[in-house]
Amino acid sequence: MGNCLTSEAKQPLKGKSGSHLNPSHGGKALALPSQNKQKNSRSEVNNVITMLAATKDVEILRQKSSHGNVIVFTYNELRVATKNFRGDQILGQGGFGTVYKGTIDEGIRPGIQSTQVAVKVLNPEGIQGDREWLAEVNYLGQFSHPNLVKLIGYCCEAEHRLLVYEFMACGSLEKHLFRRVSLMTWSIRMKIALGASKGLAFLHGVERPIIYRDFKTSNILLDADYNAKLSDFGLAKEGPIGDQTHVSTRVMGTYGYAAPEYVMTGHLTARSDVYGFGVVLLEMLIGRQAMDKSRPSREHNLVEWARPLLIHNRKLLKILDPRVEGQYPIKSAQKLANLAYQCLSQNPKGRPTMSQVVEILESIQDLPGDEFLLGGSSVTLYEASKESSKSEEKFNGRSKSEPRKDYAALDSPSPDSGSSNAHAKSASESLLLID
């Protein structure tokens, strides 16, 4: 069974705004013993304050839940639902804790229709604390949308923190793109991209915009019909209001998906999410992960390597995911690549809004099945790609039996790849890698 509630470890991504390095001492952080004692003392005080604040928030949450649709479960009820948290019920594990498959029914709570669920059990020593747990309950309990995973209930009993979600039969997008042999067709990828974009657009469009802050393939869950739903709201944050242009916050997220301006300054806007969406769109187009150290060094960072190629049609044909060759119309592929290119703009103002992204994706889906015209005859995109390769081989004086150039050789300067790529590189080098 698929991992229906995937989550990765989340730690601060250290950019300029969050750096602890002292430039005058060779980049090493220095601290005197007395400073360490003071720091530890402050840390203990902050922990106590956080605990008190979290306890107060939990009580407020209990009061809200008694009037809402979110069910407050007891620990024993969820223990029964997961067969005593049995090992064969585990759907996934991570720094946050463990996710179990379970069933809630009349035997657990009278009046409840039998339903499969995913129960997320937070590890008290894990990286997701009360604040992140409360953020998930607050946002998912407050909002309802077809493209947001449904929060059925929660448990806050003594040291126990659990969340109960609807069960997502097909697991995460990450699993289907990178961890399985089975093929995700072009049409399914388009359906998922549109669904995920609608979920993000909804969050940005509420009265006080919500910035998701951790948009990635492992946080996009799929039901039995491959409908996409956003999950894991632990890092979500309320966006700017009124005359505010951004909110300033500690840099958090996942390496490879965080917008460069957010990493460098800590300034967070809805356009930061658009960048993350662009990364996921690129992964779906090309079939590669945002960060892949197994590739040649110049291809480790997918955005830095692939973005300049998206606006060159011939090069685009060569880097599209070979697992879906022949399945996509040329115009659709080009428009999707152009959308990804815009979402990944180094300048946040150059990115579309998520509502605009939704409109563009809908228009792409409405395109008729087209063909690529080559030399006066109609051929499919796959055939055009082969013809393009033959032409390049002839131009380069190579025979068909000779190996094709590695993808990295396709990387050539584009109007946007000069200082922009340098900026992206400096940003990525300052990040703390999160797996």
From TrEMBL:
Primary residence: membrane
GO molecular function ontology, one term from the record: ATP binding
Official protein name in the record: non-specific serine/threonine protein kinase
Annotated spans, Disordered: 1-43, 385-435
Coiled-coil region(s): none
Compositional bias (Polar residues): 33-43, 414-429
Positions annotated to bind ATP: K120
Superkingdom in the source lineage: Eukaryota
Keyword NADP part of the UniProt annotation: no
EC code: 2.7.11.1
Species annotation: Platanthera zijinensis
Biased composition (Basic and acidic residues): 385-408
Keywords on record: ATP-binding, Cell membrane, Kinase, Membrane, Nucleotide-binding, Serine/threonine-protein kinase, Transferase
Compartment annotation: Cell membrane
